[in-house]
What we know:
Elements: E1 5-17, H1 24-33, E2 37-40, E3 46-59, E4 63-67, H2 74-82, E5 89-95, E6 98-100, H3 114-124, H4 129-143, H5 158-169, E7 176-180, H6 188-204, E8 207-211, H7 215-221, E9 224-229, E10 232-238, H8 239-247
Parallel strand pairs: 4-8, 4-9, 6-7, 7-8
Antiparallel strand pairs: 1-3, 1-5, 2-3, 9-10
Helix pairs in contact: 3-4, 3-5, 4-5
Amino acid sequence: MNSASIKLKNVDVVFPVYNASSLSLKNRTLSKITGGIIDRRHDGISLIKGLENIDLNICSGERVGLVGHNGAGKTTLLRILSGIFEPTSGKADIRGSCNSLINIGLGIDPEATGRENILLRGVMMGMKPSEIRRNIDDIIDFTGLGNFIDLPFRTYSTGMQMRLAFAVSTGIRPQVLIMDEWLSTGDEEFRERANQRISEVVNLSEILILASHSHDLLSSNCNRVIWLEHGKIRMDDKSEVVLKAYFGF
Length: 249
């Protein structure tokens, strides 16, 4: 298996905003929290640059944190790295198996049983059927759902739904792990097991990308931090250097 790596070259992401020309307050707000409105077309569509000229090289062994105010481009960058978004321009080259924990409920069918949803979500995450079969007993055991695993997902409580989604999303060991904050769900006993499970997945991954507002979480888990501001990289350095500049202590 080849080592994981991430290379972004001159990556821009531009979003169309429909009918924004008539929404002056929306325009002002978007200009403040993003790179701003870069074009107003005659058909009433404004174009917002979510990321601008992003150059990144991330190698196996790196644990990279992302910081920045809300709207700075963190989630957009995570979605580029996850393959959810394609760059409007530039190139994104992601090598290695990738698992994104940005939206752990993605691909869940409320009418299907818990067992069926493990298969659906697993395939959506790129798992092979043989791999799902090898891991399904462990995933079911981790959920603690017992006989509920063969009932429709829609009959589950919110806590049970989160347990299932979390268990299947962390049931594989990717080379590149992408996270937005630290997942925490369920009762205290399950949270302890969930945190242990996340730690195991993180330790076995070659590359970790973690977006967070927590100084302690970033400093204890990342050796490099990237500071995004208005869709651009403001700072990219060792975690202690960037965190001191960003948090001001």
